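Researcher: For the record, we're logging two predictions in this thread. I'll number them. Prediction 1 follows.
Model: Prediction 1, sequence and structure:
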Amino acid sequence: MEAERILLILLGIVLFVLLVMAIFIAYYVLRLVRTMRGLSEQAEFAAKNFASFSSTMRKAAKPAAVSSIVGSLARKYFKKK
């Protein structure tokens, strides 16, 4: 009878330790998920900003390309004279 009580107490202690460890692990997993969610939101925001930036640069590059072509043609024309 005494051995059964000792085993029961040891089993209770082991289960308590496992429960405490499971609570800590769950807490840290939730923290990790929240951190990853924040990082993904920041990455999405950065991607949207980059898309907007590249669109603006494309719009600005068209006049710059045209002026570059006109400038090079003008230089060639005036060098010949």
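Researcher: Logged. Prediction 2.
Model: Prediction 2, sequence and structure:
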Amino acid sequence: MHTPTLTEAVRRELLVRSQVTESPHRFGGVEFRLGRRELGHLHGDRMADLPFPRRVRDELIAAGRAEPHHVLPDSGWVTRRAHGPGDVEAVVELFALSYELAVAARSRRHAPRQAVAA
């Protein structure tokens, strides 16, 4: 049985979702976007970098699900390295979380404003 590579697994998870696109990343590898928002990018099949709100980033690191970004450790970005199949599933879960947060943020931005009673 074929074990999917990190790239194959992330593609399978994200590209079936509405409006997610894949393109080359400016620093190499591939990136996934929802509209203009980057959901994260892969450095080959060995490492993923994903942006999160700082609170979520801190929770992911505290739980051992990710580590601070390998270049920008004090940002909202995280890095997750893939050493085996269990790591691949963990990266896929992080991309799913990134997508869910992006969809929620998009919904808040496009929600009709409530009129304030005078």
